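chain below, 259 aa
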Amino acid sequence: MINWVEELPTGWLIVVMFAVTCLLTAVIFFGVMRLAAGPHGGAVAGVSPGLLSPMGLVFGLIVGFLVAGLWNDLSDARDAVNQEASSLRSAELVVSATFPGQTARIDALIRRHVNQAVTKEWPAMADQRATLTVVPAALAQALHLALSLQPNGAGQANGQRELVSALQSALDARRQRVIVSRSSVSWVKWLAVLALAALTLAAIACVHSGNRRTAAIAMAIFGGAVAVTLVLIASQARPFSGEFGIKPDVLLQVRSAQS
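prediction:
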């Protein structure tokens, strides 16, 4: 369930999650109502309504912690991309101010790095195939070039240090975005959310088993809330994939600024 659901477009994701929730709700409803009509009806109807509050609280806490972690990963991914773009732009400005003769070479290497990131790394990060074993060749060459410069005076020496620092910062930010791209919602977390939702739906059905219409309305309301929760989790599960994933717009701005 995990991979293909997280890769669905938002429209289909909503349809799938609401369909799964409706099916789960219907199965639990008819199962509990059948039990209530049988010899165990007294035990089913005897379930205390006070059980609903702690179960709803537990479900809410689990979902809250899970979503907070997803949003934290999304924020870390956005910060890494912004830092990478900012560092690359700083490198361009430093080299043009202190080593104008090397501006074209550094700009060309940065442009190559951006093109590689956009065309190769972003699809790989969206599919969680990106790894740290692949070294960004263009950025590594730019750093090697910066270290090999022969500064003439204190101004160029300071400029070289700033250039090296900016390129190293870009490399660190790139490593960070690759690391964050591997984050996802494990099957254990998905199972925990679904299990808690099913148990809470079962408790609602038991509490209202004496009135089928009331039970159906209460379960439909909670089931809708569960579906919304599942859509939220699935749409935010991967920082660099889906319609709400981080896009390389700020890196493309660095490339555009060279024109």
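Residues 163 and 239 are 30 Å apart (CA to CA). The mean pLDDT is 91.
thats it, cya
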